[in-house]
Amino acid sequence: DTGVSQDPRHKITKRGQNVTFRCDPISEHNRLYWYRQTLGQGPEFLTYFQNEAQLEKSRLLSDRFSAERPKGSFSTLEIQRTEQGDSAMYLCASSLAPGQHGANVLTFGAGSRLTVL
Amino acid sequence: QQQVKQSPQSLIVQKGGISIINCAYENTAFDYFPWYQQFPGKGPALLIAIRPDVSEKKEGRFTISFNKSAKQFSLHIMDSQPGDSATYFCAALRPSGSARQLTFGSGTQLTVLP
Predict the structure, then answer these.
(1) A2-50 pLDDT, tens digit each
(2) Å between A25 CA and nearest CA of chain B
(3) Chain A within 8 Å of B32 (Cβ-Cβ)?
(4) What is the DSSP string of A47-101?
């Protein structure tokens, strides 16, 4: 296992189009997180899953955003009707569950950079 | 609401010098304070972390100093090297319902001159 993988690394789309990002976490990690990072800023929490259950969503996650983790392994983040303000790096991270040694450590992927024209 | 404030925004240090990055937090519920290092085109990677019951933690050239009463913590990079040039983020972890949510500072872009 080489870490958290994200695909695609870069996506350029026109305003109004839908985009989907995929994240493959570290296999033994049952928690998966999505963050958004804009230029010159720190990552901002969007949502997280424990196994297949989506347990928390930030108010940053508008109705146009949906995330899934259908089998508790990989996750997808879909943005519908993209807007220019959605342009950002979308980061996925994974971790062990609470109570496990190292559960506080989030391992991030390299991110998927979205540019909305 | 920015719960973790980080300064400076950018820092230039000569090779061999000491780099110091400062963070302040507001929420006393935070109970774990990691620092992440991010290189261009990469995701953030954990560098070092501290719990609030400890005032200092050192790992190699990296040291976190923690002041619980002031709600401040800082990262010191001793003998800074050009390879340390990256963006550094402080962060704070808190329980949030059933989750543990990581809140990041705005980042410090460190440049170490050869």
Answers:
(1) 799 999 999 999 999 999 999 999 999 989 999 999 988 999 999 999 9
(2) 13
(3) yes
(4) EEEETTEEEEE-TTS-TTEEEE-TTSS-EEEEE-S--GGG-EEEEEEEEPPTTST
